[in-house]
Design goal:
379 residues, alpha+beta, 4-stranded antiparallel beta sheet, 11 helices, 9 strands, 15% strand
Length: 379
């Protein structure tokens, strides 16, 4: 076992840490209030390579291994989970293309990301969240044009208002079974594709989340990733890879809350001495630190297994589930330690507590993760 990171990733982590301290952390509360990312941030992030971390080197990206990507995402999440979610969702959209796409699709998709543009993964619908097989968006084949016509509605799509290209899951079978689920690459400017208003979310408000409507959206058959009917497998493989990244975002949020609570405990005095000298506060901080470190190690184990080409489905679900629950608990405890200052929007941890909640929801709810884990244990 070797927990040491190599020199290159440590240098990149330090550069990202400086970027976060300068360009993200000071504006995190303003972006939360304004319900969006500040102007120019995406361009600066693209210049640093934060939008192409998962793009293979042969297509012009950083080509980082999964552990290294996790290291970077944790640093960004410490500054703002909404910004980190934007970057991670960009990689999420790329994954199905890397898994099942042809060479032309990979070059085109990666080329857009290299230019600083974003992608979005459009799976969730009003009646299809945890149950991905219930997608109602239909794709009807037109033999004369060798094309498909897509009709349906998507919701809670991260990056929908910013993305230049979408990976859209639709069903090519009339019976609507998961065997017909198919992944299509759909450019933003395709006729019939419309984007809804920005969601007024509880947390991760810097990220752009919207609904989408597809009304007679025509795409060529060449827009299919892989072939018809492979969409469900692509979606499941994509989410399995992405879950540890959701976990590391949760770790970043929790670490930020822990850091704030420690600083407060050192400086806040009650009964003539710092509250950090009280055993009850010390016990809370110790428990918080143990939970953060446990989650971090579990996430990195899942990412390492992925890099080694080993089975990691169980660990992927564990990492996402445990880290999400941990972040909610640690941020709640940070608010408790800081009392009124923690509960106030002018303080640092109220936002973190709101951001943490979605870590138990997106990339598959933690209830679903427990079902996945149990299924792996009992097979």
């Amino acid at each position: 076992m070797n927990f040491e990171l190599n020199k290159d990733i440590l240098e990149l982590r330090d550069r990202v840490r400086e970027f976060v301290a300068k360009e993200i952390t000071p504006y995190a509360h303003a972006m939360d209030e304004e319900n969006g990312m500040r102007e120019g941030l995406l361009q600066k992030a693209a210049e640093l390579g934060l939008l192409t971390l998962s793009v293979p080197k042969e297509y012009g990206g950083a080509g980082l291994d999964a552990v290294s990507v996790g290291v970077i995402y944790e640093e960004v999440a410490k500054g703002c989970a909404g910004v980190a979610t934007t970057f991670a969702a960009n990689s999420l959209a790329l994954l199905p293309v890397l898994i099942g796409g042809n060479e032309e699709q990979k070059k085109a998709f990666c080329g857009l990301l290299k230019e600083g543009k974003l992608g979005a993964f459009a799976l969730t619908e009003p009646a299809a969240g945890s149950d991905a097989g219930s997608v109602k968006t239909r794709a009807v084949f037109n033999a004369e044009k060798n094309s498909y016509t897509l009709n349906g509605n998507k919701c809670f799509i991260t990056n929908a208002g910013l993305a230049e290209v979408f990976v859209v899951l639709a069903n090519t079978r009339e019976d609507g079974s998961m065997r017909g689920l198919t992944a299509f690459i759909v450019p933003k400017n395709t006729k019939g594709l419309s984007i809804g208003q920005k969601e007024n979310k509880m947390g991760i408000r810097a990220s752009d989340t919207r609904s989408m409507k597809l009304e007679n959206v025509d795409v060529p058959a060449s827009a299919i990733i892989g072939k018809p009917g492979l969409g469900f497998r692509l979606a499941m493989e994509t989410l399995e890879i992405a879950r540890p990244y959701a976990g590391i975002l949760a770790v970043g949020v929790a670490q930020s809350a822990l850091d704030s609570a420690i600083a407060f405990a050192k400086g806040r005095e009650q009964f003539g001495k710092p509250i950090g000298s009280f055993e009850m506060i010390q016990a809370m901080l110790a428990d918080m630190a143990m939970k953060v470190e446990t989650a971090r190690l579990l996430v990195y184990k899942a990412l390492w297994l992925k890099d080694e080409g080993l089975e990691f489905g169980k660990e992927s679900a564990m990492a996402k589930c445990y880290a999400g629950d941990m972040a909610m608990q640690v941020t709640t405890d940070a608010v408790q330690i800081m009392g009124g200052y923690g509960y106030s929007k002018t303080g640092p941890v109220e936002k973190l507590m709101r951001d943490a909640k979605v870590m138990q929801i997106y990339e598959g709810t933690n209830q679903v993760q427990r079902l996945i884990i149990a299924g792996k244990l009992l097979k």
